[in-house]
Amino acid sequence: xxxxxxxxxxxxxxxxxxxxxxxxxxxxxxxxxxxxxxxxxxxxxxxxxxxxxxxxxxxxxxxxxxxxxxxxxxxxxxxxxxxxxxxxxxxxxxxxxxxxxxxxxxxxxxxxxxxxxxxxxxxxxxxxxxxxxxxxxxxxxxxxxxxxxxxxxxxxxxxxxxxxxxxxxxxxxxxxxxxxxxxxxxxxxxxxxxxxxxxxxxxxxxxxxxxxxxxxxxxxxxxxxxxxxxxxxxxxxxxxxxxxxxxxxxxxxxxxxxxxxxxxxxxxxxxxxxxxxxxxxxxxxxxxxxxxxxxxxxxxxxxxxxxxxxxxxxxxxxxxxxxxxxxxxxxxxxxxxxxxxxxxxxxxxxxxxxxxxxxxxxxxxxxxxxxxxxxxxxxxxxxxxxxxxxxxxxxxxxxxxxxxxxxx
Length: 408
Ligand code: IPM
Ligand code: MG
What we know:
single chain, alpha/beta, Isopropylmalate Dehydrogenase, two-stranded antiparallel sheet, 14 helices, binds 3-isopropylmalic acid, binds magnesium ion
């Protein structure tokens, strides 16, 4: 009897212990959840206040911040800066455009401060109007440095760069696409704030807000309307991710109804990924609007048709700031193998076209775009292969500059 009593007590103690552990797990998770919900509600309030886009025609001077980044970043960014300075030389001479080098957005500095963007660098970035940014290294588990958040993701969030525009063009195949990737929400916004409930359970979060969706959808449809595009394709996985993707789809469609001249269609990401390789169908697509993660994945696929991620640039647009970058990473392997001078500057040069368009320098943007089309798709007098079998980054930069001069 004494023994039995002892066992019952043991069980009771154990059960109490399990209950307490469960309760503490639930409390911790609930607290975490409540904290991120609070953050997101505050972010919504900030979005409500930020309604006007900067008018670049009124800025004098326009300050272009330049961050080389990591790996091949400094090499390819240098060529883009050189070409931009060449195109804008009269305005630079007249003091209407200023280039400002921002050091310190390197993996070494970020690790030293244990921050995705060191505070002083963020301040310098905020003192510019637009930023030309080389790729930065994103640490991952197993790397020799702490797992700090991606500088890209942090910059997009800190500067509220909500629209990631990624054009892809293959003229001879009739491909002329532009992706409007939502850039501050979805699986990314809390990508570093998931919760390990215990050793067995990990939970991440994905976020869709009305404001965040409406502003990207508006931009995509406005772009389509202003550029004579008659079709916008919304891409989600709303059949499965019902709440957040469902909301994204519904709100994009609502905005689409305000543009009766534009056909809206909606696709799930899996079949859209397949359709992009369907040579009969893919030329019909034009403008895409989609949440962050799907946009990340599918734009790498799309860039591959154009000649690889090394050829694709992207614009990260916010109401107050904008940042222009390659769509690819810093290619540390090229540096390790000592061939960074053979890196392809086309991604950063394409990003520079977007930068010029964004600050209203349409004529210069057109000259650069034409020159790139000629060098990359038509003449191909020099080809960058990433190795000594092709041209160096600088030689390609020279080629583009000569071509701009010929175009006049
Ligand atoms: C991109 C990149 C980034 C992203 C990485 C470097 C965090 O892949 O710009 O597409 O996932 O957004
Ligand atoms: Mg990517």
